[in-house]
Design a protein that fits this description.
Layout lengths: L14 H20 L9 H7 L6 H32 L5 H24 L7 H29 L19
Bound molecules: fe (ii) ion (2 copies).
Length: 172
């Protein structure tokens, strides 16, 4: 329930971007598994890695906040890479895409602040579902749009980052 399986339809065909998207999905899954409400569902290696902090609410809260910050940093880095790519291809929707990234980060920070205020040690299923939606809706929406533009530009100019070649593309 708490796990978000990768869907092949999310693959954009731009190697670096797809690798980072997969890594973000993995990050959300690891976070959900490590900080699940049900200890029986927590993967054993994650429980072992948590060491003595399991069962200590103060330490668990600190661990949760640190894990959430790591994911935020991963997302910030990913957004920077995408924005550099969009600049390199003169993507006309760069400004609105960048605004969407800023909004996504703001929403994430707000969620983290709520969890911090409540001194949470666990992520409830509603929060995990929100994280899934937060990640996937942008990948299949705005990210797919710039990927489509990226592939429409291939053939007209040298691609700035390694992506698939037009001949191997399933896109029109
Ligand atoms: Fe992305
Ligand atoms: Fe994006």
């Amino acid at each position: 329930m708490s796990r978000l399986p990768w869907q092949e339809s999310w693959t954009l065909g731009i190697e670096l971007v797809d690798a980072e998207h997969r890594s973000l999905v993995d990050g959300v899954n690891q976070l959900a598994a490590r900080f699940t409400w049900d200890p029986a569902l927590a993967a054993e290696p994650l429980r072992a890695a948590a060491g003595d902090s399991l069962g200590d609410p103060a330490a668990e809260h600190v661990a949760l906040m640190a894990a959430l910050e790591l994911l935020a940093e991963q997302a910030r880095e990913h957004f920077k890479h995408e924005e550099a790519l969009m600049r390199a291809i003169d993507y006309p929707e760069l400004a609105s895409h960048r605004s969407e990234h800023a909004l996504l980060l703001a929403e994430y920070i707000e969620m983290v602040r709520d969890l911090e205020r409540q001194t949470q040690t666990r992520l409830d299923s509603e929060t995990v579902q929100s994280l899934h939606h937060w990640l996937v809706s942008h990948m299949v929406g705005a990210d797919k749009d710039y990927a489509d533009y990226y592939f429409s530009m291939l053939g007209r100019k040298q691609a700035p980052l390694g992506g698939r070649q037009p001949a191997a593309s399933s896109r029109g």
